[in-house]
Amino acid sequence: MNVPSSHWVLHDYLQVNGGAERLVIALANGLPGFSLGVSGVYPAFRESGDCGAVRPQVIGAASLRMLPRIPRALAAFSRPPAHLREARQVIYSGLYAPLTALEQPRGRRLYYCHTPPRFAFDQRERYLARTPALARPALRLAIERYRHAYLHALQRMDRVLTNSLHVRERLLEHTGIAAEVVYPPIDTTGFRFLGQQGYYLSLGRLEPNKRVDRIVRAFLGMPDKQLVVASGGSQLEALKALANGAPNIRFAGWLDDDALAQLMGNAIAALYVPQDEDFGMSAVEAMAAGKPLIGVAEGGLRESVVDQRTGLLLPADPSAETIAEAVGRMSAERALGMRAACEARAAEFSRARFLDAFRSIIQ
User: Fold this and answer.
1) Which residues contact 166 (CB under 8 A, 6 or more apart)?
2) CATH says 199-347 is which class?
3) 9, 22, 106, 243 - which has most CB atoms within 10 Å?
């Protein structure tokens, strides 16, 4: 049985082995006395995630487990149990967990913002357009109620932190709050150079905003170059159909940390070309393994990748042809020559630096 704690890291849910999940796990493991609370732990995370010594506590009544992921999180954190309302210190993370701050009458409240909820701000009309016309008025009202609650919760925070200058600017524009930047923790010891086994590694989750389809198309035009597509997502079957059994393209699926470190450590270079990325922990993990990144000059990647020294930053919205040309320029020899610079750059984002920053904040 879990014993209620007075110090918490609260995050929406553990959905996949992604950057936000790894960050809150690093906090809960690295800050003595803190427990990790989430609204749910989902299959994709159970398959590949690693909580270390921390055992996540699921927040909310058992009856909520029948709900879809987002309504479940909203319900769990809008009406938290008594031990959360009486917490002495809470580090909030995500889009829905911060709503608990509205029910926390005392104690210290910190918020680590990975991104503000874009469906409630600059991308609201895009989300509404995807909804059947008859349902739009109700969804618009629900979004507006959530937006009001989110802004109210942020006003109750003692300090607001964020993962990049890029997200800081976005948060300031939407909420008027000037956050402090604390870059995410990278396991620079878990990723290391192992060699070069003749393939390039795609790191993005298989979702539309990660543009993995363009990487696959690029390699379809380069049958002499090998691509391994790590991760999973909603586009897995569509991307497999696009690859159409090409012998130079392999899909690895969701990977645990050890398997990902093996693939990363033996690649020539990594590819990651997401749209308007918040920060991009995968890019720094690649550099920690001594692998340059073929990325895109958008979002947070501009804060981690040093163009021409630790990788290649392509112009915004790159085509498959642009990606293929960059792969052609990133030979095994050139990639090897960037190894030392990559490792040195990644060390600037180490887990130790992240935890030192948080310890000074919470003391």
Assistant:
1) 278, 279, 299, 300, 302, 303
2) alpha beta
3) 9
Residue entry with tokens 């890029």 = 166
Q: Strand order in 180-181's β-sheet?
A: 57-58, 35-38, 7-11, 89-93, 108-113, 159-162, 180-181
Residue in the block written with tokens 């009544």: 61
113, two tokens = 């913002």
Strand order from edge to edge, sheet including 311-314: 249-253, 226-230, 199-202, 270-271, 293-296, 311-314
User: What are 264-304's pLDDT values in tens digits?
Assistant: 999 999 999 999 999 999 999 999 999 999 999 999 999 99
Whether pTM > 0.85 for this model: the answer is: yes
Contact 295/273 with Cβ under 8 angstroms?
yes
Residue pair 219/225 in contact (Cβ under 8 Å)? The answer is yes
CA dist., res. 336 & res. 260, Å (int): 19
Return the domain boundaries, the chain.
7-182, 199-347
CATH code for the structural domain at 7-182? 3.40.50
Spatial separation of the C-alpha atoms in residues 213 and 70, rounded to whole Å:
27
7-182 and 199-347 have identical folds: yes
